[in-house]
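Risk register update: the risk of archive-format incompatibility is retired. Evidence:
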Amino acid sequence: SRTCDCHGDICHVPPAPRSGLSAAEFIVQTLHQEVDKTGGPLVVVGLGPFTNIGLARQLDPSIVTKAHLWAMAGSFNAGELPQHEDIPRHETNLWFDPAASRQMLRADLVGRNWLSVTFVPADVCFAVPWVGSPVFPALAAANATARSAQYIVGCKDPRDKIPLCDELAATLLSHPHLGRSSERYVDVDISAGSGDGNTLSWLNTTPPDHGQPKANVFLELVNVSLFYQQWLDIMLSNSPPPTAWPLCARH
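Archived output:
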């Protein structure tokens, strides 16, 4: 996860110290420390399964009042895509631990929840494939000069068919104008049946009544070519990422 303060300064949180803390304890401690330090709410970025964030909420339910949640997660209309024709609401980050995903999303018994919730789901990620994109050749050409490019070229197979999911989520955080979003209530199926872990959603005109958050969901990219260029600009720079963190000002 990455955090930032509400003035746009990036908090470069170091790796968890070897202090015996669990990942969930480290999340709780870091959120409290960074809020005390910066005086403003943070943005928690989830790019994988939500086991540790769900556990952190159990340890200290108050942490959600200090942060916005930005997640690469969910599948809303991906059934229209050939990659998801058999499992239209299945997405790995929510499916991996459905109970924790629901724990992460729902308000607690006294109504506390994240300051805001944003999803960058599988639907929009399929618009930015790695294979055939202009990204790999450009990064390979710059491999000798940019640390970020060295990392991605060394770790990602040019034949990888997985879209640039995490890369898109991180880029939209600082460049939200690249996508179009809409609001809907979101939950996770924990039926333990064939739909276990599937994304559940309701339009904001028909809200459920079980503490599900109203989330901002990116479902369309305005300009795919511009996304590739913006992400390349970030990756080919040895400077910190852009400091225009739009959610930090929203309460």
